[in-house]
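WARN no homologs supplied; continuing
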Amino acid sequence: MAKILIIDDDKAVVDSTADMLKSFEFVVVTATDGRKGFELADIERPDVIILDWMMPGYSGMQFIKDYRDQGYKTPVLFLTGKGDLSQYQVEALRAGADDYVSKPYEPMILVEKLRAMIRRIEYSNKSRGAEGNRHEYGGGELIIDGDVMQAFKYEESCDLTNREFQLLQYLEQNMGRVCSRSELLKQVWKFDFLGDERTVDVTIKRTRQKIEPDQKNFKYILTRRGFGYFFPNDLV
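OK structure emitted
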């Protein structure tokens, strides 16, 4: 089931929209504050975000600017009371939104727009999967092979543990986007792990020791200080 994150400072709108979407078997996460919504978007990894434009303190436009600047590609649909004026729709789309719906909205229109977004995500994922599970970087300097769940340096196994490989693969799958420690704990360690975020740092250190050709100048797992880790998208 697809997960939808609703971010709107109007609790009545949040509750009614959440109830409606749940009736169509969506999983729904909600926030009535833009900054809390940003935190949930990072942790929950929704399939689509429904975002209000006018929120005090941290507006929807500031949210999407920051969200896209950090490399997140999750589809965002503006659900706003600013009306159907084309200037607002254009402004939202230019800022990085994927669609725009005015309040009050027709429930089935909103549902079908969400379904269309999710279909595009699924099609994109299938297309990437068709490219194969073995990816080479640096002319074979690093090979990430999802079929055997291992990384190689010039065909020599890096002897990654399962967790180290899962961490490396998750960063690669989110290439170019900074992944926070809390996100990595949730997505890589899943729900079988109860611990603190330093565990991520320790696992990153071990993985780097095994895959990085230069321990003083990391190439494959980079740090964005204060935010998290990322696999760069400019590798060849």
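The mean pLDDT is 88.
OK
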